[in-house]
Amino acid sequence: MSFTALAIPCVSMFFIWTSFYFLLCTINPHRSYEWNCRLLTIFHGSLTSLLCYWSAFITGPWPLVAMGDVNSPFHTFIATFTLGYFMFDFLWCFYMGTEGIDMLLHHMVSVCSLVFILFDGNSGPELVAVILGTEISNPFLQIRWFMRETGQYQTLVAKLNDAIFMSMFIGWRLGPGSLLCYQALSSPKPKLFVKLGGAGLYLISWVWVFYILRFARKRFFRKSKVT
Question: Residue 52 has what pLDDT?
């Protein structure tokens, strides 16, 4: 894919996500900037997960047997759709200073990987699988934040949401995620940059799993309240 053919749709998608954010700020002026950004995150995570599921399990090809294959138009659309959002979210987080170095690093690795796969034109099947595994638990993480903001964090619904989030995060990333990472590293077809990017995201996931397990012990196995 040429630079122009890559840049125009990605920049366009970035402006669409940015415009959507400002629209939310306009119709929710009584809410904070972070509130509206997290609403946007829920929408992206939910829709992207559905698109990736449809690509991996319905239309195919199956990611574990098609690693390194040429991107389909659907793969290209999903990658462009997600890249535009990650560009917006990275700039928002960097400007607002709301995230630590681990999240910013995750965003940078994600953006670089998406750009490479779009420009190279290959590895779309494993890309949608990675996006599915990383985004499917994200809406539940955002719901957790909203429940804390609205004073509902000690309710049974909030604890159920936390349990679902932790189960999906750990289950997807260390179950199918481990298999996908192993297959990508052992397969001769994916490019070296794709393998390095996948391994980097996988290692970052292990760091987050450590923090989530530590949080789970505080949330469910201690009498003190978690805030």
Answer: 95
Q: Are the CB atoms for 171 and 154 separated by under 8 Å?
A: no
Range list of H helices, 101-223: 101-120, 124-135, 138-149, 156-174, 176-186, 192-221
Backbone φ and ψ of 14, nearest 5°: -60, -45
d(CA 106, CA 102): 6
How far is residue 222 CA from its own chain's centroid? 30
- Higher-pLDDT residue of 220 and 50 is 50
Dihedral (CA of 199, 96, 172, 84) sign: negative
CB 134 within 8 A of CB 201: yes
Token representation of residue 165? 């989030």
Task: Look up residue 151 and give its two tokens.
Answer: 């004073």
